[in-house]
Amino acid sequence: MKSNITQTTAIGTVAKSLPQNKVILLTHLISNSYIPYADLHKFFGIGWLYRIFLIRLCDVFRKFAGEFTDMAKRKTREKEAYKQYLERTGFGEAPITAALIDMDGVLYDSMKNHTKAWIRLSEELGWNYSPDEFYLYEGMTGAAIIRLMMKRETGRDDVSDEEAKEIYAKKAEYFRELGNVDKIEGADMMLATLRSAGIKRVLVTGSGQHSLLDRLNADYPGIFSEDLKVTALDVKRGKPDPEPYLMGLEKAGVKAENAIVIENAPLGVKAGNASGCFTVGITTGPVPEDVMMENGADIVYPTMTAFADALTDIIAARNYSF
Ligand code: CA
User: Is the pLDDT of residue 15 over 60?
Assistant: First the structure.
């Protein structure tokens, strides 16, 4: 304590001999607790104290001004994205009443394990695939991926539903063996915001992976009702075809202009775009923003947390803009 006061006295002496602009340096010393606030007047005098107070006030003001500017830029970007969406679809402005939500990479950080399971399966079949390829297939049903691989590797295009189901069961088992996956950070906040705004939540996934689908209600309690789920088991064509999202709209009983799609994969945003919904891309995996935009995302966020942070404003803007 004694050495702290000695140090503080020395800093106070230096302060009196410094030009005013060096006070900024001193304020940092104070911020870092080298000088106790309560003792400031003893060392600096009221005049210095006043100047330091003003500088600190300016720092706080600058920080808030910076945050305000960032928020204003973000809102401009969102407004522009919505304007372009209205242009591409020809729809009029409408509030959001339903959110069609993908599962892998949106609710669960599961893509790494899906990729490992696909690689293990393809190696077992003597096929050579790189992990990145499976991120590009993301969104397709398991059966569609198996047919694609089979055609490429063997030229066969006669894989029956039964055979595809059998091969997919192996992949699903390898995925399950890799253990539980984490939830995506920010997903809870995103879903809570939708729920408190009274927006219907519809699950729309190309997955038929029971190990994930069965734990969804436990991980996200009270979010998805059974009649508002579309999985690989429900659709014929699957993403990138709009069928799963159109089915989601039908189940929710809402029109495309009243829904948003929340996706993380190029083929998923392609399906969302084709369904006529405003399509949000979240880059939770290795696929970059420009690839998401090229495939039809109306707007892209770098993380789920960034999207969740913006969501209240997005909903409000759509509610009050007409
Ligand atoms: Ca996904």
Answer: no
